Each structure stands twice: as structure tokens, then as C-alpha cells.
Amino acid sequence: MICLDTNVVYHFLFETELTSTSESIIREAIIDGMAIPMIAYNELLYTVGAKIASIKYGVKGKYSFRKHITKYGFPDEAIEKVNSFLGDFKVTILRDYQDRDELIKTIKSYRLTPNDAQIAITCKHYNIGTLATFDEDFKRVPWLKVIP
User: What does each of the 148 residues of the chain score in pLDDT, given as a tens digit?
Assistant: First the structure.
């Protein structure tokens, strides 16, 4: 099983300089199966929603996006885009592993953001040793092999 970070899926869904790399990662990961922690799923929904609001409505920045959501609701297109990807590629959503002490230890030991530490300990809990991400910070986590 390979765990997907938010950025790999984002670059797969939107044309960027990293799209071809994301496509290659996902093509190879299909063989082993793919999973995404709930926290990364949450990040992905937000990021895709913000991108769609930016493209379609000219919304710029997180506060403008929050105001847009308050007025118009969260973009259905973002939910559909993310969930279609997960369904089409049979990506399992993992419940985040909840252990406050381990989270704090991981944040401090490997100099990670709380969300990244949550992804790392969730992978550890599910015995997933490979994380597909463009985030170099995960290379400091000894139990994770980072691809690409």
C-alpha cells in the first residue's frame, strides 16, 4: 500500500509542472494499492475547492475563500472532483491515528507541521512504509520511504 499526500493528488488533478510526475506515481501505485489519511483528504478538499473558486470566481486567498464559502457554500465541483479521483483509482481513506503524545513527539523529533506529523503517524499505525509526496520534510521521518 502506498500513501498519497495532498500535493501528489493536486498535481494530478490540475495541470502543473508536476503533473506528469504525479501521473507516473499514481500509475505505479495502482499495483500496490493507494490510501490517503483523512487529514490529507481534508487538505485536498480545501485545496481543490480554493483552486476551483479561484479559477471560476476569481477568489484569491484563504479569507476570501472562507467568505465565498459562507455566501455560496463549498464548491460541489471540488467534492466531485476529489471523490471521483478516489473512486476511479480505488483509494482507501484511512482514519487518522489519534495519539496526542506520539503526534507531539513526531512534530518535535522530525521538525514537522502538525498535519504532516499526523500523516506520518497514521502511515506508521497502518504499517504503510511508502509515502508519495513532493514535500521534502517527510524525508526526515525514518519509517517512511518518500517517492518520487
Answer: 999 999 999 999 999 999 999 999 999 999 899 999 999 999 999 999 999 999 999 999 889 999 999 999 999 999 999 999 999 999 999 999 999 999 999 999 999 999 999 999 999 999 999 999 999 999 999 999 999 9
Judge whether 9 and 85 are in contact, CB under 8 Å.
Answer: yes
What is the architecture, at CATH level 2, of domain 2-147?
Answer: 3-Layer(aba) Sandwich (3.40)
Tell me the C-alpha distance between 126 and 55, whole Å: 36
Whole-structure pTM value: 0.93
Q: Are 123 and 95 in contact (CB under 8 A)?
A: no
Strand ranges, E, within 1-139:
2-4, 34-37, 91-94, 130-132
DSSP states of 64-78: HHHHHHHHH-S-HHH
The radius of gyration computed from the CA coordinates of the chain, to the nearest angstrom, equals 16
Between CA 31 and CA 117 the distance in angstroms is 26
